């Protein structure tokens, strides 16, 4: 005897639900796993590869489709089924299984570790660390943060190395308020991998579970020779005490400004950690060298402001590392 199966029955397997509450009703669509995120990020553009069935449901598990009257009431009479599906895809909340959530978390974690490993180096050798070493260092920070949130991870003995840059745990001289200390508690699926990688680098640099520093940038700075020997005006001294002001008045108004730190050329070279080449071509002076990423903005601002358009900074390499 042949058992007849309902011809209109659709079994939804390997399903990922996207839900959107509109008005007083909750609407659902059935999608393939992993495809919703790809569609939202622009990787996937074909809805046929995203939707398991191009219908809007009130309850996918029960196979209860949404009546046209309910859809018109919630989304408007002029809204087509495709428009409604697109709105649910864009704004809806995605429900995923535990396995998919774990896989997504692992993908983000691996991407964060990969980014960090390509941007940080050993300050002594300028060589990059392996992804495994970066992973262990981040795991150390995460464990410390979860075990005792109020305590700070122990800093490596090389944390005072002048080659390292980052958010220090202690105050700089003259600062009245303590700086916030970077912490790391692990990856999340709610933030981009790039953003989390920056947080991870700040935490590693601040706490130094292993000696790390940002890989230096390789820059080309060009400037007109006309402005190279001009003196750099130092910022005015803060009006901290009356006695200083009196001394300044007695000495003359020109002394209201502190002693100039040097020429434009001297100031530019003070940003460069290591000069690779330096030359004068025609009426332009050119220097190629390595700069710490944290000094890049200050250098760019100085060249742009002090030279009045007669100088420029070009990035030749975002992260220079020592190859084995």
Automatic annotation (TrEMBL):
Domain Ribosome maturation protein SDO1/SBDS N-terminal positions: 14-101
GO process terms (BP): cytosolic ribosome assembly
Keywords annotated in UniProt: Cytoplasm, Nucleus, Ribosome biogenesis
Statement: the UniProt record of this protein carries the keyword Nucleus: yes
Record region (Disordered): 144-193, 232-262
Any one Pfam family match given in the protein's UniProt record, by short name: SBDS_domain_II
Domain (Ribosome maturation protein SDO1/SBDS central) ranges: 110-215
Residue spans of biased composition, Polar residues class: 182-193
SUPFAM superfamilies: FYSH domain, Hypothetical protein AF0491, middle domain
Keyword Zinc-finger tagged: no
Annotated ranges, domain Ribosome maturation protein SDO1/SBDS C-terminal: 261-318
Subunit and interaction comment: Associates with the 60S ribosomal subunit.
Similarity section: Belongs to the SDO1/SBDS family.
Name assigned to this protein: Ribosome maturation protein SDO1
Native species: Staphylotrichum tortipilum
Organism ancestry: Eukaryota, Fungi, Dikarya, Ascomycota, Pezizomycotina
């Amino acid at each position: 005897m042949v058992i007849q199966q309902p011809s209109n029955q659709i079994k939804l397997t390997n399903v990922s639900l996207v839900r959107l509450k509109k008005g007083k009703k909750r609407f659902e669509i059935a999608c393939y796993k992993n495809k919703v995120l790809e569609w939202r990020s622009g990787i996937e553009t074909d809805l046929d590869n995203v939707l398991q069935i191009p219908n809007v449901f009130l309850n996918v598990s029960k196979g209860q489709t949404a009546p046209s009257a309910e859809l018109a009431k919630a989304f408007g009479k002029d809204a087509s089924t495709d428009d409604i599906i697109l709105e649910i895809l864009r704004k809806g909340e995605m429900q995923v299984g535990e396995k998919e959530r774990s896989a997504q978390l692992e993908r983000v974690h691996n991407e964060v570790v990969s980014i960090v490993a390509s941007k940080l180096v050993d300050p002594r050798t300028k060589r990059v660390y392996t992804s495994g070493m970066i992973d262990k260092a981040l795991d150390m920070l995460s464990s410390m943060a979860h075990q005792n949130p109020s305590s700070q991870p122990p800093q490596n003995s090389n944390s005072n190395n002048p080659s390292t840059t980052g958010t220090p745990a202690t105050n700089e001289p003259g600062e009245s308020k303590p700086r916030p200390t970077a912490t790391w508690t692990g990856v999340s699926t709610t933030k981009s991998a790039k953003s989390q990688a920056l947080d991870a680098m700040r935490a590693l640099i601040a706490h130094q579970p292993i000696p790390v520093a940002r890989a230096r940038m390789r820059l080309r700075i060009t400037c007109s020779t006309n402005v190279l020997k001009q003196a750099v005006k130092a910022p005015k001294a803060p009006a901290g005490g009356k006695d200083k002001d009196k001394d300044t008045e007695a000495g003359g108004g020109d002394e209201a400004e502190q002693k100039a730190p040097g020429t434009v050329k001297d100031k530019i070279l003070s940003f460069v950690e290591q000069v690779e080449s330096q030359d004068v071509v025609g009426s332009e002076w050119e220097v190629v060298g390595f700069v710490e990423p944290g000094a890049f903005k200050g250098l760019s601002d100085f060249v742009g402001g002090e030279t009045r358009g007669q100088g420029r900074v070009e990035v030749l390499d975002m992260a220079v590392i020592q190859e084995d």
